UniProtKB/TrEMBL annotation:
Residues 1-22 are annotated as: Disordered. The keyword Phosphoprotein does not apply. Residues 482-697 form the Peptidase S9 prolyl oligopeptidase catalytic domain. Residues 18-421 form the Peptidase S9A N-terminal domain. It comes from Mesorhizobium marinum. Keywords: Hydrolase, Protease, Serine protease. Belongs to the peptidase S9A family. This is S9 family peptidase.
Length: 703
C-alpha cells in the first residue's frame, strides 16, 4: 500500500525512543515511549498547566501536524458544521416532568452552548430559570454540568460541575428563590448527591487522588465541608461506589460494584448518618439492583443462574437475599435491562431477538402487555419519573430514520400521547432513507446483528463509502437511534452501519460473556466479519470502509487494524483504550482494579497477561500496511489517559510498513467526552467526518 494521495507529504513529528523494560511472569516487554506518561498525572488532571514541558511540546507538535495534514478540509469542516447545526433546534426544550406543584425541564437558548434548567407551575405557565449553564460556563475553556437535583420541598437545587474535563466535580447548593449559591461548596466529588428527608443536608461520594469514589459523606447545610461526616468507606480499590435516592424520598441506595459483581447498602432518608444496612453481600458474579415499590423492593438480579436476569420482590423490612421471591422468572434470550415501579404498575425495558421492548405489568393482577412498534430496527428508552403515585409513564422512541419521539403512556387505558417530536429545522424526509437490520456470519457461525442506514439513491454496487461503527465491551449495546449528524455522511452517499458485536448485550447476556476476557477476540472477529458482509452484500468495498470506535471501541479499532488492515480504508479511534496490557498492569490508575473483571488481572495471572498481550493494540503493532489512522484524545481524560493514543501513534509510525499517515489530535483543555458545549462538540464531529470523507473520497464531499 502506498501513501494515500489525499494526504500531503508532510513529515510527522519525531518521537524520542527511551526504552523501559518491564518483566512480569518471566516475560520482558520493552516500551520505548513510556516517557510520554506524566509522572504527575494526578496533578495534571486538576491543573493541565502542570504538564511536563517536554511532553506538552510533543503533544503540541502532534496537533500542528494533524492540522497541516487536514488543512485542505477546512471548508468541508465548516460546511459539515453548518449542516449539523442547521439540524438542531437551537432553542430546543425538553417536555417538563411533573413533581408536586411544579414541572421541571431543561432548554437551550439560541446560540447557547450549555443547558438551562427551568420549572413551571404543574399545569403549565411561565418558565422560571433555576440554573443557567451558559452563565456558569462564562470565561471557562471547559465546563460541564454533572447533575441538577431539586429538593423535595422545591426550595433548593443540588448541582455540580466539572471545569477541567477530568471529572472531579464540585457540588453546590442554590437557593431557588434568590438564585444564589450557598456557602456549601464541596469539591472532588463524583458529581451527584442525595437530599435527606429534611432537605437540610445531602449525601455524596468523594473521589481520592486516583479518582476512585470510595468514601460516602453527609454534608449538613452551613457546615464546613472539611467536617462532613463519613458514613461509609469502601476499602476494596476494585469497586466503585455511588449513591442514589428513591422517588418516594424514603430510601438512599449505596451501590458498590465492579463489572460483574454488585452490592447495595440502604439508608433511610430521615436517618442518613446511620450505619447502612446490607441487602446481599457481594458474591463474585452476583448482580442486583433495587427499585422501591411501597412496602416491597423490586429486585432485578441474575441470582440463581438467571443469566438474562429476572425480577424478584423483597420486603422493605428485611430485604436480604433469603427473602427474595421470584416475580418475573428468568427467560433465556430475554434480557431485562431496567425497571420502573409505580403504585399500581411495574414497567420493564427488555431486549429480545436483538430489539428492545417495553412491558407493563399490573401489580395487583400480574397481567402484562407490551407496547408495540413497527420498524425493523429502533431504539427505546424509559425516561424515568419524579412521581410514584401515577398511571402515566414516559418513554422515547426513534429509529435511524425516525426522529426521536417522546410519549406519555397511560398504563391503565393503554393510550399513548405524543408530547414531542424532534425537530430538524433544515428539514428531514424519512422516505429519502432506508434503514435495515442485517445478520453477518462470524468466524464461528454466530450471526452478528448490523443496523444500517443509507440514502435511497445510493447505489448498492460496492461503490459507496461506508462508516462502520463498533464498541463491544462492558455489555453496552449501541442503539439504532436517530442521529442528525450522520445524515451529513449519508447524504454524501455513505452507508452508515453499526456492528452489534459480541461484548455487548444485543443478543442477551451470553453475547456479552462471549466477548470478554479469554473470548475477547470474538469482538474483533465479529467486526471484521461485518465489514466483509457489507462488501459481499454490495453495500461498499473494503478500501471504502472507514471504521470508527471510541474508548473501548477505540481498542476495537486498534485490534482490527492489526488483525485485518486490508479490510479498511481508514480507522478513526476516539479516546482509544489501546495500551490495554500496560494499563491493566498499573493498579494506581483510576479504573484499573475495577476493570480486572472485564479484561483480567495480568498482575496476578500469567494466563490473563498472555490473553491481553495477544490482542492489546499497542503490543501488537507490526510491519503491516496500515490504512490512514486518526486518533483523538483529551489531556485530562481519567478514563483513557492521553498517553495511550500518544504512544500508539508513535509506535505505529516507528514499526508500520505503510506510508499512510497516522494522525493524533489531542484536546488540551478537555477529557473523555471531548468538548462540553453542544456546538463546539459539533466542530469535533465535523473534523472526524471530514477525515472519513477525505479517506474515502474527494475533500469536497462528493465521493
Amino acid at each position: 500500500m502506498t501513501q494515500s494521495p489525499r494526504f500531503p507529504a508532510i513529515a510527522h513529528p519525531a518521537t524520542d525512543e527511551r526504552p523501559v523494560d518491564d518483566t512480569r511472569h518471566g516475560i520482558t516487554r520493552v516500551d520505548e515511549f513510556a516517557w510520554l506518561r506524566a509522572d504527575n498525572w494526578q496533578e495534571v488532571f486538576k491543573d493541565p498547566s502542570a504538564l511536563d514541558p517536554a511532553i506538552r511540546s510533543h503533544l503540541e507538535a502532534e496537533n500542528a501536524y494533524q492540522s497541516a495534514m487536514m488543512a485542505d478540509t477546512a471548508a468541508l469542516r465548516k460546511k459539515l458544521f453548518e449542516e449539523m447545526k442547521g439540524r438542531i433546534k437551537e432553542d430546543d426544550s425538553s417536555v417538563p416532568m411533573k413533581d408536586g406543584p411544579f414541572a421541571y425541564g431543561s432548554s437551550f437558548r439560541v446560540g447557547g452552548e450549555q443547558p438551562r434548567f427551568f420549572r413551571t407551575p404543574r399545569e403549565g405557565g411561565t418558565e422560571e430559570i433555576v440554573l443557567d449553564g451558559d452563565a456558569e460556563a462564562e470565561g471557562k475553556a471547559y465546563f460541564r454540568i454533572g447533575s441538577c437535583d431539586h429538593s423535595s420541598d422545591h426550595k433548593r437545587l443540588l448541582w455540580s460541575f466539572d471545569d477541567k474535563g477530568s471529572e472531579f466535580f464540585s457540588l453546590r447548593v442554590r437557593d431557588i428563590e434568590t438564585g444564589r449559591d450557598l456557602a456549601d461548596d464541596v469539591s472532588d466529588t463524583s458529581g451527584g448527591g442525595v437530599w435527606n428527608a429534611g432537605n437540610d443536608g445531602f449525601l455524596y461520594t468523594r473521589v481520592d487522588e486516583n479518582h476512585r469514589p470510595s468514601k460516602l459523606f453527609f454534608h449538613a447545610l452551613g457546615a464546613d465541608p472539611a467536617d462532613d461526616r463519613l458514613v461509609y468507606e469502601e476499602g476494596d480499590p476494585g469497586f466503585f461506589m455511588d449513591v442514589a435516592g428513591s422517588r418516594r424520598n424514603d430510601w438512599i441506595f449505596i451501590s458498590i460494584n465492579d463489572h460483574e459483581t454488585s452490592e447495595i447498602r440502604l439508608l433511610r432518608t430521615d436517618d442518613p448518618t446511620a450505619t447502612p444496612s446490607l441487602v446481599a453481600a457481594r458474591e463474585t458474579g452476583l448482580q442486583y439492583e433495587l427499585e422501591e415499590g411501597g412496602d416491597i423492593f423490586f429486585v432485578l438480579t441474575n441470582a440463581d443462574g438467571a443469566k438474562d436476569f429476572k425480577i424478584a420482590t423483597a420486603p422493605v423490612g428485611d430485604p436480604v437475599r433469603a427473602n427474595w421471591i421470584d416475580l418475573v422468572p428468568h427467560e433465556p434470550g430475554r434480557l431485562i435491562l431496567s425497571l420502573l415501579a409505580f403504585r399500581d404498575f411495574l414497567v420493564r425495558l427488555e431486549r429480545k431477538d436483538g430489539l428492545p421492548r417495553i412491558v407493563v405489568r399490573e401489580r395487583a393482577s400480574g397481567e402484562e402487555h407490551a407496547i408495540a412498534f413497527d420498524e425493523e430496527a429502533y431504539s427505546l428508552s424509559l425516561l424515568g419519573a419524579y412521581e410514584y403515585d401515577t398511571d402515566v409513564m414516559r418513554f422515547s422512541y426513534s429509529s435511524m430514520t425516525t426522529p426521536a419521539e417522546v410519549f406519555d403512556y397511560d398504563m391503565r387505558t393503554r393510550q399513548r400521547v405524543l408530547l414531542k417530536t424532534q425537530e430538524v429545522p433544515s428539514g428531514h424526509d424519512p422516505d429519502r432513507y432506508v434503514t435495515r437490520r442485517l445478520m453477518a456470519t462470524s468466524h464461528d457461525g454466530e450471526l452478528v446483528p448490523v443496523s444500517l442506514i443509507h440514502h435511497r439513491d445510493t447505489p448498492l454496487d460496492g461503490s459507496a463509502p461506508a462508516l462502520l461503527y463498533g464498541y463491544g465491551s462492558y455489555g453496552i449495546s449501541i442503539p439504532a437511534a436517530f442521529n442528525t449528524n450522520l445524515l451529513s455522511l449519508v447524504d454524501r452517499g455513505f452507508v452508515y452501519a453499526i456492528a452489534h458485536v459480541r461484548g455487548g448485550k444485543d443478543k442477551g447476556f451470553a453475547w456479552y460473556e462471549d466477548g470478554k476476557r479469554e473470548k475477547k477476540a470474538n469482538t474483533f472477529r465479529d467486526f471484521i466479519a461485518v465489514a466483509s458482509h457489507l462488501v459481499s452484500a454490495g453495500y461498499t468495498s473494503h478500501h471504502l470502509i472507514v471504521a470508527q470506535g471510541g474508548s473501548a471501541g477505540g481498542m476495537l479499532m486498534g485490534a482490527v487494524a492489526n488483525m485485518a488492515p486490508e479490510h479498511f480504508g481508514g480507522i478513526i479511534a476516539e479516546v482509544p483504550f489501546v495500551d490495554v496490557l500496560t494499563t491493566m498492569l498499573d493498579d494506581t490508575l483510576p479504573l484499573t482494579p475495577p476493570e480486572w473483571p472485564e479484561w483480567g488481572n495480568p498482575i496476578a495471572s500469567e494466563k490473563d497477561y498472555l490473553t491481553i498481550a495477544a490482542y492489546s493494540p499497542y503490543d501488537n503493532v507490526a510491519a503491516l500496511d496500515y490504512p490512514p489512522i486518526l486518533a483523538v484524545a483529551g489531556l485530562t481524560d481519567p478514563r483513557v489517559t492521553y498517553w495511550e493514543p500518544a504512544k500508539w501513534i508513535a509506535r505505529l509510525r516507528a514499526r508500520s510498513a505503510s506510508a499512510n499517515p497516522a494522525l493524533f489530535k489531542i484536546h488540551m483543555d478537555s477529557g473523555h467526552g471531548g468538548a462540553s458545549g453542544r456546538f463546539s462538540r459539533l466542530e469535533e464531529i465535523a473534523y472526524v467526518y471530514a477525515f472519513a470523507i477525505k479517506v474515502a473520497g474527494a475533500v469536497d464531499g462528493n465521493p
